[in-house]
Design a protein that fits this description.
- The radius of gyration is 30 Å and the shape is globular.
- A hairpin with a 2-residue loop joins strand 8 and strand 9.
- It is built from six helices and 19 strands.
- It is of the alpha+beta class.
- The longest helix is centred in the C-terminal third of the chain and has 29 residues.
- It catalyses: hydrogencarbonate + H(+) = CO2 + H2O.
């Protein structure tokens, strides 16, 4: 039934693309309009999520993420481009990950960020906290599907690794990308592409190589030398959140197995500022240039989904802490009540004169 639903809405999304619909994060084509033109965007299993205590569950079967071929030689090259929604880096197919029981081949990575006046642009949140930025490294299930186009249409087709970004010290690894932003300031003009007999708009989960160009103009991109992509990741690849979700951009296919690492990586304030201020959503000749900011989707309802976590501490600790606080509150209230009870002294009777009632004979011997 779910596969049938996926197929029906895929047709809807393809038709939306063929009719020339565009999308943005704000304005006339902003996020509120996505479900109208892309059916999945108003459906179930959508991303991103807020990872809060009520939906987390520890899963002892989760293993550290295994990365293969991520240390790419400088003789290899990546393509960095501005697609009007983000900076995208097309990766090489020798990069793979293993999430049992499947192997996934890397396709591309991109970033999400906020605004220089409000540097909170991550898509996923932890306990309501939004981080300054987030990296998504997109892979497709190469054990089952021949390319990412087919994989995107399947419920088990994609695996995305999410890396939260915090402001701290300078990060030389991120300079492999950020130092080239000035070369791709403006949006490329690749408009409509043909893939497997279907017409779709270019969205940055799908690399250029998956399509045959149907209608295009020059795309603003640059070739850069390969580097160790694993250096963009946090040290702990064994601590993460895991759930089933969707693409966070149209057509919002619910085909993603999400892994969002618990620990953020650091970049400097200057590096974040470059990300927030360099790129434009519009092309070079636009009469009304629009800076590329706040390119993140709002949080989605988790529905009946639970998020698995690979780390026990933090989840169990929070529950234990809540229980401990409850016991502490009871003890404090009890102590206060006892103290108040003890502080109520009996009435002082020294100044009260007792008068014998009239007609009553005093006879203390009968008392």
């Amino acid at each position: 039934m779910y596969q049938l639903f996926l197929s029906l809405v895929t047709v809807s999304s393809v038709q939306a693309a063929s009719h020339g619909y565009s999308w943005a994060y704000s304005g006339a084509h902003g996020e509120k309009t996505w479900p109208t033109n892309y059916g999945f965007c108003g459906g179930v299993y959508q991303s991103p999520l807020d990872f809060h205590e009520n939906i987390l569950q520890y899963d002892s079967s989760l293993r550290p993420i295994k990365l293969f071929g991520y240390d790419v030689a400088t003789a290899e090259s990546f393509t960095v481009s501005n697609n009007g929604h983000s900076v995208s880096v097309t990766l090489v197919p020798t990069m793979k990950i293993e999430i049992e029981p499947f192997h996934y081949t890397a396709s591309q990575l991109h970033l999400h960020w906020g605004h220089k006046n409000n540097p909170k642009g991550s898509e996923h949140c932890i306990e309501g906290r939004r981080f300054p930025a987030e990296v998504h490294v997109v892979h497709y299930n190469s054990d089952k599907y021949t390319d990412i186009t087919k994989a995107t249409e399947a419920a088990d087709g994609l695996a995305v690794l999410g890396i939260l970004i915090e402001v701290g010290s300078f990060n030389p690894s991120f300079e492999n990308i950020l130092s080239h932003l000035n070369s791709i300031k403006y949006k490329g003009k690749c408009l409509l592409l043909k893939a497997q007999g279907m017409y779709q708009f270019l969205f940055y989960f799908i690399p250029f190589s998956s399509y045959t160009v149907f209608q295009s103009h020059s795309d603003q991109s640059i070739q850069i030398a390969g580097f160790n992509v694993q250096e963009l990741f946090p040290k702990r690849l064994d601590e993460y959140f895991r759930y089933e979700g969707s693409l966070t951009t149209p057509p919002c296919n619910p085909s993603v197995l999400w892994t969002v690492f618990r620990n953020p990586v650091l970049i400097s304030e200057a590096q974040l500022f470059a990300l927030e201020t360099t790129l434009y959503c519009t092309d070079r000749n636009s009469s009304e240039p629009i800076q590329m900011t706040n390119n993140y989707r709002q949080l989605q309802a988790h529905g009946d989904r639970l998020v698995s976590v690979s780390f026990r501490e933090g989840v169990v600790l929070t529950v234990a802490l809540a229980c401990g606080l409850g016991v502490l509150v009871v003890l404090v209230v009890t102590c206060v009540l006892i103290h108040r009870k003890r502080s109520r002294k009996p009435a002082d009777n020294k100044n009260i004169a007792y008068v014998q009632a009239a007609g009553v004979e005093e006879n203390t011997s009968k008392v």
